[in-house]
Backbone:
């Protein structure tokens, strides 16, 4: 005769690990977007005037 | 009164994980800050590498163009590929890949005339009997400083590699109108992602101050980087390089109802009267520099202008005088000047607008005329 199946148990949860993963994702996204943001600001502040074709 | 015990439902494991992840994602923390620093440094380094000379000439450089008609980006890349091409193993043994090069500098008129250069390469094969590598380094409203920069960059490896290189520079009378003030205009300066000692010397000669150099190419060309960096990173991330479209000028609206273009061309022709000496002196110095490289040769050719257009805008007399000055200049320095439109027998109907020929037969006729001139030049001592 088979032994009774033990009731299912949740695996131990480590919220700190999930929080760290979220924090790293936050940092990667913000850090990655920071460079284009700085470029955009420089283009405004530095007065870089892109060439526009005038038809001649 | 009996109290009813409220039994909390146990929070599921996945929900705890999700709450923790969201908390980490949305709140400032030390790990987030550290990750941000790492990502910032990595992205900045990626950008510096992409905009280095090797990066622009290599695979990441294919993603720098903002669009298919971003001539500055494509020309920068092609010039650097020429500059970084390998040298011959020894002076006695020219590089096996030493196919002669034709490097064409000019404006949108030249770009429209030659397209991607493949038609001209075929014509050169027919007329000279040998293979040629044609590099069309034309950009709209190309300035003489851009031409000096491109010539120096394209020739950087020519002497070392002993690759026969013919530099052809397009000329039309309104190009003499480049004054020092106009060269200093931000819209025309630093358009290319290149630095050139020759061009810096020319800027100083014109009373302008070249941008300081740091030794890091990406920083030395920072207007180019600032203008194109964001799109370049995006294209690199998505692996979506832009494909060049060279002769697209015959798709633009030829109408000029306000007369803006007409007035601008006329003003440039008249402005050339005062600027011709400095313009021709610059060309003379460029010619001397190019002729000092044994494997290089310089020629000029006439850029297209619709027959009779100078008269239409009331500048025929001045244009003729300026043309005569240029003719005397090329005769004085002993350099060829090819009037391709005359040789190709173009008429006003072959033009889409005052400065650009139509695609198809007019292009082919001009390319054939250019190829015949190159073949004739080869036959000369």
Residues:
């Amino acid at each position: 005769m088979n032994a009774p199946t033990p009731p299912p148990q949740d695996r131990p949860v480590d919220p700190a690990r999930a929080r760290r993963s979220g924090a790293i994702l936050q940092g990667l996204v913000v850090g990655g977007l920071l460079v284009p943001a700085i470029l955009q600001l420089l283009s405004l502040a530095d007065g870089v005037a892109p060439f526009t074709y005038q038809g001649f | 009164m009996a109290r009813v015990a409220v039994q909390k439902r146990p929070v599921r494991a996945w929900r705890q994980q999700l709450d923790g992840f969201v908390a980490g994602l949305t709140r400032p923390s030390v790990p987030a800050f550290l990750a941000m620093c790492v990502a910032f440094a990595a992205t900045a380094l990626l950008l510096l590498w992409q905009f280095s000379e090797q990066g622009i000439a290599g695979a990441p450089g294919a993603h720098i163009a903002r669009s298919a008609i971003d001539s500055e980006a494509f020309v920068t890349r092609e010039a650097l590929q020429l500059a970084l091409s390998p040298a011959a193993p020894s002076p006695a043994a020219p590089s096996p890949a030493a196919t002669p090069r034709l490097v064409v500098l000019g404006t949108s008129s030249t770009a429209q005339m030659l397209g991607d250069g493949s038609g001209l390469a075929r014509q050169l094969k027919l007329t000279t009997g040998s293979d040629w590598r044609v590099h069309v380094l034309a950009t709209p409203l190309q300035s003489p400083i851009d031409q000096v920069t491109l010539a120096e960059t394209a020739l950087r490896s020519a002497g070392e590699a002993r690759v026969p290189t013919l530099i052809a520079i397009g000329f039309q009378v309104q190009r003499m109108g480049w004054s020092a003030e106009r060269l200093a205009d931000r819209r025309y300066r630093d358009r290319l992602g290149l630095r050139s000692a020759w061009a810096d010397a020319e800027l100083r000669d014109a009373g302008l101050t070249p941008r300081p150099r740091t030794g890091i190419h990406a920083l030395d060309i920072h207007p180019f980087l600032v203008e194109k960096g964001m799109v370049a990173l995006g294209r690199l991330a998505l692996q979506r390089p832009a494909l060049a479209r060279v002769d697209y000028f015959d798709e633009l609206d030829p109408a000029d109802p306000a007369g803006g273009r007409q007035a601008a061309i006329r003003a440039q022709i008249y402005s050339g009267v005062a600027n011709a000496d400095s313009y021709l002196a610059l060309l003379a110095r460029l010619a001397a520099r190019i002729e000092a490289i044994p494997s290089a040769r310089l020629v000029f050719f006439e850029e297209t202008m619709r027959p009779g257009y100078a008269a239409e805008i009331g500048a025929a007399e001045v244009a003729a005088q300026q043309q005569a000055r240029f003719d005397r200049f090329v005769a004085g320095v002993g350099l060829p000047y090819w009037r391709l439109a005359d040789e190709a027998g173009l008429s006003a109907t072959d033009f889409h607008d005052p400065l650009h020929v139509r695609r198809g037969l007019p292009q082919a006729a001009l390319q054939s005329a250019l190829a015949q001139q190159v073949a004739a030049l080869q036959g000369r001592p």
Notes: Strands of chain B lie at 101-106, 133-138, 165-171, 296-302, 337-338. The two ends of chain B are 119 Å apart (CA to CA). Chain B has 17 helices and five strands.
